[in-house]
Amino acid sequence: MLRAVIFDMDGLLIDSEPLWVRAEIEVFGDVGVTLSEEDCTRTKGLRTDDVVGYWFKRRPWKGATPKDVETRLIERVASLVRAEGEALVGAPLAFEVARMKGRRLALASSSPTTIIRATLERLGLEDTFDVVRSAETEPYGKPHPGIFMTAAQHLEVHATECLVLEDSLTGLVAAKAARMACITVPFDWPNHDRRFALADATVESLAHVTADLVGDIERALAHD
């Protein structure tokens, strides 16, 4: 039985991926690292410090420390979210479906708390979730399952009683490593990456996360 639903944030609830790309190109450009939009897809779904570490290892720069760059990146993304962040299709319906049968809701994001707060305020979702967790407090970010395991603990449910909604392959791997069911909503729909077959279901938008779909997953889990 599914007792909780855990939502990712960036690229699922808010159209923030283009904002992240803009911020990364600007901030890394300031330290002499030229990134393309395609380059930015390599670190999609990773924690901010992991994004910075990824590029520092491959294209090391002088002057600003990785921590300085991380701080600038967080501040720039938060600023863009507050000014331009837009909700993605279907979130209200998905929240309604998720709440059925008394299920509890959590938000578990790779983004730091500063960006999570900016997003929840921008979208008016401050009171939507029972639990809000950032991977910045975890030893490891996604695809490590820690963020989802911690969310389940705070929801007071077992990992196998959770359904995760994710847009990235990184998040999907983390959810499955946590032994949780997962519906993926790829940001770049239609996505032909065969690795998304690991998900219990893949849909075009949150508007397609219906009570029937969740019920089908719940019944399939009961027979496992």
TrEMBL record:
The keyword Metal-binding applies. One of its GO terms (molecular function) is metal ion binding. Its cofactor is Mg(2+). The keyword tRNA processing does not apply. Keywords: Carbohydrate metabolism, Hydrolase, Magnesium, Metal-binding. It comes from the Bacteria. Gene3D superfamilies: HAD superfamily/HAD-like, Putative phosphatase, domain 2. Belongs to the HAD-like hydrolase superfamily. CbbY/CbbZ/Gph/YieH family. This is 2-deoxyglucose-6-phosphate hydrolase YniC.
